[in-house]
């Protein structure tokens, strides 16, 4: 137990409190002088003329001293206020000097916790979690935009108003979707700061609804059967490169996401079991997705193996066997076939989805499972792909038969 008198501020024997007039008249002396204001508050006048505030007090039975700043930067009224604050701390059994050091360290930590520092920590976390390189590249691009404006701002000082100014500049150029994604990325950094105990709330939350909502742009796709038949016949008669030809045909037959197909490795295909296992790092939803292969697709893959089976990639570039074919190769092929703005490689998913649903032969969930879409509820998310496997196998062969009829 601390005795009642251990926290009392030491009293000076000086009989008169200080005044601003008195302080201004104080002159330096060879040995320096001390001038008490009362309650332990003292003004030291150094030989060089500088005037320094000191507060003497007792804590745990020991005499201690706290520096309160330099006069006139800290005027008399402010020094007295600091004295009263010290009294309040002592009443709570808190050492004012320990408290001052803690506040200084906290302020230093806050100033060091800049937006760019926390953003870099978040990126490091995403890399360790194995996020796709495409995702990481996009995230870095948005963070570079944000860092250009507030890289060195402490995360606690990053307000909604500061963020909005940056977003408005992007929005002012007509880049509405970019502005929305930038807000989302900044928010991700802020939420990471909250999770690591360096921020109390996300300033981007208040900006929801503040930005112009971009119009959703669907990938061009032919969704009527006759029109799609013309696209299919054009693809099968295209005279481009071996890998581009095969990629387009498999997009028609399997309708995966283009990146999933072009990054595919031979180890993902079991041609005997007629399955394609897309690994999480290539799949949009970051989970393994198994697709049934119709016999028509297996034949195309067997023929393709004679050209690239010696390597890891199914669709390597001619110049580098370790680099996959780009989606641009398929896009250019569709442009040459006369389908620019009409049919894209990604649009084959919409074409297949529309025609499969239109046929009325297949359960909607089986179609969604084949497209690797996430279901609306948790049960469907967990089970719908496996549950409809047999139906998906039949659907794959039926779809291949429809393609064969279109080719004629």
Structural description of this entry:
The protein has 408 residues and is α+β, with helices and mostly antiparallel strands. It has 16 helices and seven strands. It is rod-shaped and about 110 Å long. The N terminus is likely disordered.
Query: Which range best describes the helical content: under 10%, 10-25%, 25-40%, 40-55%, 55-70% or over 70%?
Result: 40-55%
Quaternary structure of the protein: single chain
Biggest β-sheet: strands ordered side by side in the sheet: 1-2-3-4
Give the overall pLDDT as a whole number.
Answer: 85
Q: How are helices and strands ordered from N to C?
A: HEEEEHHHHHHHHHEEEHHHHHH
Beta-strand content bin: 5-15%
Computed Rg: 35 Å
Query: From the helix content, strand content and strand pairing, which structural class follows?
Result: alpha+beta
Flag low-confidence runs. Answer: 1-15, 375-384
Number of helices: 16
What would you call the shape?
Answer: rod-shaped
Report, as a whole number of angstroms, the end-to-end distance.
98 Å
Q: How many beta strands in the DSSP annotation?
A: 7
Biggest sheet architecture = 4 strands, antiparallel
